[in-house]
Amino acid sequence: MMEKLEIKLLHNDAKIPVRANIYDSGLDLYAVEDIELNPCRKSLRQVLQRIGRALCKKKDNNTTQTCVFEGSRALVPTGIAINLPIGYEAQVRPKSGITAKTDLRVQFGTVDFGYNSEIKVMVDNIGSTKQKIEKGKKIAQLVIAPVVYPEPVVVDKFENHSDRGGFGSTGLD
């Protein structure tokens, strides 16, 4: 059982991830720089075609600000790296408060064993107004989970299972 998570601070302003409550599954991740995401002016299809397109990166007084235009997506740096033991992954997940109270959408991410570079959080602005992510603010949560390594096996049919539908097959009532 994993009891300690090794964390490397890669930036002077990086914050150590912490749980808001002692038994929460997720550790809060913090933005290490200010980010502005302009409003979404394109269809979802056009936005998805522009994944990861950062059009400007300004350096001012030793601080960095990333601006994202016409795609409303940014990779938010956290300033931390982690060292996972074999058999574990880290899941980057949205924070419910950000999803409920803003037009920002954090994309799910996976940190695999062996990835020791900076953790970054992919965030989309789906709204019609500019959104700001302030340096030092919570942006996502990190959940550490065990990994199962099954071997994929091709079969002609599944034993003891029938097709039960899916995608609304049981109705909404």
In percent, how much strand structure appears in the residues? Answer: 35-45%
Give the CATH architecture. Distorted Sandwich
Measured as a percent range, the helix fraction is under 10%
Low-pLDDT sequence parts = 52-56
Q: Assign an overall shape.
A: globular
Number of strands: 13
* Terminal-residue CA separation: 42 Å
Number of helices: 2
CA-atom Rg in angstroms: 19 Å
What count of domains describes the coordinates? Answer: 1
Strand order within the widest sheet?
2-13-8-10
Q: What number is the mean pLDDT?
A: 84
Q: What is the fold-level CATH name, i.e. the topology?
A: Deoxyuridine 5'-Triphosphate Nucleotidohydrolase, Chain A
Broad structural category: mainly beta
CATH superfamily: Deoxyuridine triphosphatase (dUTPase)
The CATH class assignment is: Mainly Beta
Question: Biggest β-sheet: count, sense, barrel?
Answer: 4 strands, antiparallel
Order of helices and strands: EEEHEEEEEHEEEEE
Describe the structure.
- The protein has 173 residues and is mainly beta.
- It has one domain (6-146): Distorted Sandwich (Deoxyuridine 5'-Triphosphate Nucleotidohydrolase, Chain A), CATH 2.70.40.
- 7% of the residues lie in helices and 36% in strands.
- The protein contains 2 helices and 13 strands; from the N terminus they run βββαβββββαβββββ.
- The strands form 4 sheets. It has a 4-stranded antiparallel sheet with strand order 2-13-8-10, with no helix packed on it. It has a 4-stranded mixed sheet with strand order 4-5-3-12, with no helix packed on it.
- The chain is globular.
- The protein starts with 5 loop residues before the first strand and ends in a 27-residue tail after the last strand.
